[in-house]
Amino acid sequence: MRAVQITEFGGPEVLTVTELPDPVPGEGESLVEVSRAGINYADTHQAENSYLAKSSLPMVPGGEVVGRAADGRRVVALPSSGGYAEKAAVPDRMAWEVPDAVDDVTALGMIVQGASAWLLLRRSVHLEPGESVVVHAAAGGVGTLAVQLAKQWGAGRVIATASSKEKRELALELGADAAVDIAEPDLKAALIEANGGRRVDVVLEMTGGTVTDQSLTALAPFGRLAFYGMASRELPKPVQPANLMAHSTTIAGMWLAHVLRLPGDVMRTALDELFALAADGRLRVISGGEYALAEARRAHEDLRARRTTGKLVLDPSR
Predict the structure, then answer these.
(1) Given this model, what pLDDT does residue 175 score?
(2) Which CATH number does the domain 123-258 belong to among 3.40.50.720, 3.40.50.1000, 3.30.1340.30, 3.40.50.10860?
(3) How much is the pTM?
């Protein structure tokens, strides 16, 4: 089969298309004929071995696929790796059936980005109706869905941030009440101004560095910041617990892998709700582009350069 393989860690240049034997499923696994593979920012960290879970070489990257299992079921799945290929062995407990009304891009958009937005709002910040929500990187995979879900679930005001006029316009189209340039030198003041002069209740943050720092200072009493990524690769300033108490603020961290350790099938609960919203036309995955397998390197370059919006996928048949 054709696959993208990494034999040394590094940037997009280490992604190479090659021929490999078909994977052999182990006990509790199924072989999936991959129709589309999702591309996530985490994949760029995996390629350079800077992700939370360390990688080993050689490796076929890619942690999400949609396709047909051997028994004919159409599934979306989360293999630990191996997604950038024509076939992937996936653990049965990490595969979920996809309704016919949900297309491949939507299915892939929901399994990581949609579930992340769901968990951030439902579990990490416990969004209450009427609260203000800041969504950083609002034109990205998680951001586009978080904007829509926050509005669906009664946020009083959704404030999107993005790096270009076009991305901010997309966030407004998806339901954001205001859009702020992430490059604003005084981001704290810009967020408060966008919220009508009031500090904000919730921030969903995946950038790191000064964006995290300024977002924390924009929180209202009992405000919550959920941190789920560090795209800038810049560490925020250390936070002193006493400062959290002084301002009655909360910082939460979220890594999607932990949802699989919770009692019950929380992922199934999230996907059922997300797929139903998508099938009804109330939740839309923004297609950010489809790349041939041989274009995986360019996909990572585009993603790291922030040239993309929405959900990116690989087509292994090309």
Answers:
(1) 97
(2) 3.40.50.720
(3) 0.89
